[in-house]
Design goal:
By secondary structure, the chain is an all-alpha fold. The protein has one domain. Helix content is 79%, strand content 0%. The chain is built from ten helices and no strands. α2 runs antiparallel to α3, α6 crosses α10 and α8 packs across α9. The longest helix has 32 residues. It is globular and about 55 Å long. The relative contact order is 0.15.
Length: 268
């Protein structure tokens, strides 16, 4: 399984990097929107939709929402703020899971709205971050990846206390702290090379990055919670060794809109 995961990651990395580095923001948005539509298709299974016609309608709705988000990108801050509100609500749902949803599973309309709030702002954020320079987008992506790697190794070495045992038994508080420490080291080492920052702005960016990493964990846990609610292990099987696209991007779905929104407070 590990070998398969590594091979899949190595196969995907070059084309993804090529799009990030060489494509225009519009082309990047279009390419990643295709991934967003695949995520929406996976989400329809978690919504409980079985008929292909119903799933196709939701796919079309997601495509329309992505198109509108790009057409009205001047209002991107409002889109990112809506995503932030959703992820704050998701954070509030996690401590009471599954009892809080045992008697009330969100209906199709609510689940559909949640899916849009997860997918559309994240795709828009990727494009708008890249429009500031591809190094800005790479900085944000690697921030989350470094946190994931740090959490993995810290959890294996020191993990004792479960972070959310009823949602994702493998995650520990020590792992989360390790991820925060690793991402803080990334910010302190790399941010001065990517941004022109005063000392005050550096501190604000560090604080923003810690918030972003914490919400990336929320994104991961939230997708795990909805998979448990739907009774499935993976959101899909499109990525050998990894599961579905949602399984690999859940952290980024939460992190990217919040990072894009927060850069305004940094003065960037």
């Amino acid at each position: 399984m590990l070998k398969q995961r590594v091979l899949t990651a190595l196969a995907l990395l070059p084309p993804v990097l090529a799009v990030i580095v060489f494509a225009s923001p519009q082309v990047l948005f279009s390419v990643f929107s295709i991934a967003g539509l695949l995520m929406a298709w996976e989400w329809t299974a978690l919504m409980g939709l079985e008929a292909r016609s119903q799933r196709t309608i939701y796919l079309a709705l997601t495509g329309l929402s992505l198109g509108l988000a790009w057409a009205f990108q001047a209002q991107a801050s409002a889109v990112f703020a809506a995503a932030l509100i959703w992820w704050c609500l998701a954070l509030c749902l996690l401590p009471g899971f599954p009892e809080n949803l045992a008697g009330y599973k969100p209906g199709v309309v609510v689940m559909g709205l949640i899916g849009l709030l997860m997918i559309v702002p994240a795709i828009l954020a990727l494009a708008l971050l890249q429009s500031r320079g591809f190094w800005v987008l790479l900085f944000a992506l690697v921030l989350v990846w470094v946190a994931d790697i740090g959490a993995y190794f810290a959890g294996r070495a020191f993990g004792r206390r479960k972070l959310a045992p009823l949602v994702s038994p493998g995650k520990t508080l020590e792992g989360a702290l390790g991820g925060l420490a690793a991402s803080a080291a990334w910010v302190l080492a790399i941010a001065p090379l990517v941004f022109t920052l005063s000392d005050r702005q550096q501190l604000i960016l560090l604080a923003l990055s810690m918030v972003v990493v914490m919400f990336s964990i929320v994104g991961d846990l939230t997708e795990s919670a909805f998979k448990r609610l739907a009774g499935v292990k993976d959101s899909g099987a499109i990525l050998p060794g990894h599961g579905g696209i949602l399984d690999r991007t859940d952290s980024l779905l939460a992190a990217m809109p919040i990072f894009a929104l927060g850069l305004g407070f940094v003065g960037q």
